[in-house]
Write a structure and sequence with these properties.
This protein is mainly α and 430 residues long. 57% of the residues lie in helices and 7% in strands. It is built from 18 helices and nine strands. The two termini are 40 Å apart.
Length: 430
């Protein structure tokens, strides 16, 4: 329970309801809309709807049904409570229930408190549970451990940093976020809010990195989570007066949506090409074998789409009792070539690739040969290239604010450029 918030809400509501008695319908009517306004502003919509039916006396108020009056109460009294509670639904309910118990009576306060029982579907519980799950998952710990081992190459070269008691794990995904939050205290913001925002950032960045790995199965929930994270991060950014500085968040959400939708399409293409029966089995078998030789991963959307394109061009067709693959292509794409182009544009970042005849891991910074560090990435043409960066024998001084600020300014690290260029990776280290 947030005693500071409870006292503030009590003071405000005592002043608003001065001269009224708790049994009056006008009090029940106004409190209903204050509670609904606060919960709605905090994105607890289902709880707000439940609150609408908790005050039967409200209908007897002389103001009942006056939409302009009710909207004004929600906006001018409910929304400020939500902001004071930092949009935490549990704290909103606790504070208003605390006041109602004293001013109206314990039963009304208990009824308001009961809203917390059904709040599990709301953002607060969902995200808190999600943070706990992902930050204790095998993938999260394993991936973080890999980065910690890598950073041991240079004791002054830390991939992540601390914000109060929280140590970030995935800010390496976004140089812009790293630049902002490593220096967030100098902005004069509420550091409790900055820490909470950083935790939400980490979950968003983890999702983005996790779904681009091999073996990930697309889950629609990740899109919903990403959008909720974005909404709440941007609310905190507004409270800190740094809304414009958080514009990078939209790009990460777009990447998550694009990747999840792309991978769902991949699964659909694989399913269609494997379930549908070719009218010329030997010809289809031939092009499948060619796809297996051409692509490292088979079956995959790229391999199957390529084989389907070659098979169709050679006069092959499909028949099925469930769904016809050509009808699906015609319905969703002008031709198979368009599908292949779509898949190429939405190709996810796989961890493993081939460079000069040997397997390499993409996007993993490692000890360099030509320069201090090297990393293998895909260039815009889809080819794997090696990016060398960093001066050998030189330590990174990112813990020195002046050195770090100077380096990032010289190299325009707020806009580090494409991943297949050395500047991007140098900025990421700084």
């Amino acid at each position: 329970m947030n005693t500071r918030l409870n006292k503030k809400v009590k003071k405000d509501l005592d002043a608003y309801f001065k001269g009224y008695r708790g049994s009056e319908p006008e009090v029940h009517h106004a409190l209903k809309h204050i509670l609904m306004g606060a919960l709605t502003d905090a994105n607890f919509h289902s709880s707000s709807k439940k609150a609408a039916n908790m005050f039967p006396k409200a209908d007897k108020s002389k103001y009942a049904g006056r939409k302009d009056f009710e909207d004004s109460i929600e906006m001018n009294h409910g929304v400020p409570i939500a902001k004071s509670a930092k949009w935490d639904g549990h704290e909103i309910i606790d504070a208003i229930a605390y006041w109602a118990s004293m001013f109206i009576g314990g039963p009304v306060g208990a009824k308001i408190t009961s809203l917390k029982e059904g709040i599990n579907e709301n953002f607060r519980i969902f995200v808190n549970q999600f943070i706990k799950e992902v930050t204790h998952s095998y993938d999260y710990e394993t991936m973080s451990g890999k980065r910690e081992n890598m950073s041991n190459e240079d004791e002054n070269d830390k991939e992540e940093f601390r914000i109060r008691d929280y140590h970030t794990k995935y800010f390496h995904v976004c140089p812009g976020a790293s630049s902002l939050y490593m220096d967030i205290e100098s902005k004069g913001v509420d550091m409790d809010m900055a820490e909470r925002s950083a935790r939400l950032h980490d979950v968003l960045f983890f999702i983005e990195e996790h779904i681009q790995r091999d073996g990930y199965k697309p889950e629609r929930d990740y899109i919903m989570v990403a959008k909720n994270l974005q909404r709440n991060i941007m609310k905190m950014a507004e409270m800190m007066g740094l809304e414009k500085e958080h514009n990078y968040i939209q790009g990460h959400v777009d990447t998550i949506i694009k990747t999840v939708e792309g991978k769902k399409l991949e699964e659909r293409v694989i399913e269609l090409t494997e379930k549908n029966v070719p009218t010329n089995p030997s010809k289809w078998s031939y092009y499948k074998s060619q796809a297996k030789k051409k692509f490292d991963v088979y079956p995959s959307a790229y391999a199957n789409a390529w084989a389907a394109k070659q098979y169709k061009a050679a006069g092959g067709g499909w028949r099925t009792t469930k769904e016809n693959i050509e009808e699906y292509f015609v319905e969703n794409f002008q031709d198979v070539k368009e599908l292949v182009e779509f898949l190429k544009e939405n190709k996810p970042n796989v961890n493993e690739a081939e460079y000069q005849g040997r397997k390499v891991e993409l996007n993993k910074i490692m000890q360099g040969d030509v320069k201090k560090f090297k990393v293998y990435v895909n260039n815009p043409a889809g080819n794997v290239v090696k990016v060398n960066f960093g001066a050998k024998g030189m330590n990174i001084k990112k813990n020195n604010p002046e050195r770090r600020k100077s380096f990032r300014a010289r190299h325009n690290c707020d806009n580090p450029g494409p991943k297949h260029k050395a500047r991007y990776w140098s900025c990421r280290k700084w």
